[in-house]
Amino acid sequence: MRVQAALRNPMAAAMPAEVRLLNITSSALFVLGAVLMVVLALLWLIRQPVFNIRVVKVEGEVTRNSVSTIRANALPQLAGNYFTLDLSRGRQAFEAVPWVRQAIVQRVWPNRLAVKLEEHRAAALWATKEGEDQLVNQQGEVFQANLGDVEDESLPTLQGPDGSSAELLAMYRQLVPVFQRLDMSIDTLAMSSRGSWRAEFDSGAEIELGRGNETELVARSERFVATVSQVIARYQRPLVYADLRHNEGYALRLKGITTTVPVAPGKKN
């Protein structure tokens, strides 16, 4: 059988190994050359002017900025065409525009961009260590914008360690309905670096809330609100200061009423 196979294809049997290797190499080079030509053709194609970005359609929330202002701020930072534009950098360019919280940038064939924007919605002021107020949005994120653009002058002020804005906003939202029972509105809510909370109110009153999680502080505040109204009604004096950091009660100061015992004439402390 082997003799018959050799007789049927004498050229294959007699072909040296070097020739077969040369044929394989030639075929591989031909394929490689063809692939390279295709790649070069594609590179040439995607750089044609027809794919340059010509239209940018902006949708979504644009109440704080006009579409022309957004384009003027973001477009100079965009580089590339339909194929080569970095969408991540494009998103960052639009999110760098004041009041823009989030941008979704998508390609639209063959030379367009579709941009959908979400704007910040101010929920509070953020007091920085440098004394320059910033803003906190509804998600509890600190952002920079012109404070003069904020129409709501009743925004509370939050103050705390870096990265704690969301926690402060959540605590504020829990405490507001509690103190509204006393017709008290929180102007400032602050948390120290040690986790101690303090609230200042529109009436000028201050309350030390102490340490604890959200549940503990709300429960402590509710106990205070449930009993302090009786004291205020009895003395008919507005609240000036309260300290809720005591285990079995709280310290209280009303306007015009002091717990300091006056020293008798001729006596020394």
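Next protein, fold it too.
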Amino acid sequence: MHAVIFEKFNALLTEREWSGPVLEVGAVPTEKTLLNLPVLRNVTARTGINLEGPFTFKDFEILKGDANNMDRFPDNYFGLVLCNAMLEHDKFFWKSVEEIRRVTRPGGLIVIGTPGFADNSFQKFKKRFEKQAWYMSIKSSKAFGFLLSSTLTLEVHGEAYGDFYRFSPAFFREVIFRDFHSVEILPVMRPPRIIGLGCKPGSDPRS
């Protein structure tokens, strides 16, 4: 995990209200897994899940399991669910998204990061000139048209376990966080990684 992403997750959790227990989907037994965020230092109920494992790392467990079916966890259990750079490697990511939503308690917070694509300064530049004749001439040319019809995304990576998808802000807004509240979607770095967060509707009966 890039240090900028790690720090951004930590800053976002510092700014939001949430309470444990905490789950990281796609956790790994390294210093840069999200369960090691400084803001979580005093949270005792931290659990990870990964296709590989199980692992014990520092003071938390990473269970072996598939995020497509997390039936080992009850409905509405976790107060905070984290996931980064995992969904693009998940052939059936929509199943994992629904499981993440299911295991999060009402009022709980979900924070997810993926590589993606989003408006950037070059796209804003293009929009200024898209009706100009010279722009349309370049866009329709065989030699240079691809430059005006493309956007920057993170390179293919993780070939050993597959790299299948890139995601847009609309995916976060309309799929992951549909009907959630306090939703925030943040493109970070270049090529863009997108971090989205939001709260599950309802109030936590434990509070």
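About the second fold: The first helix runs from residue 3 to 15.
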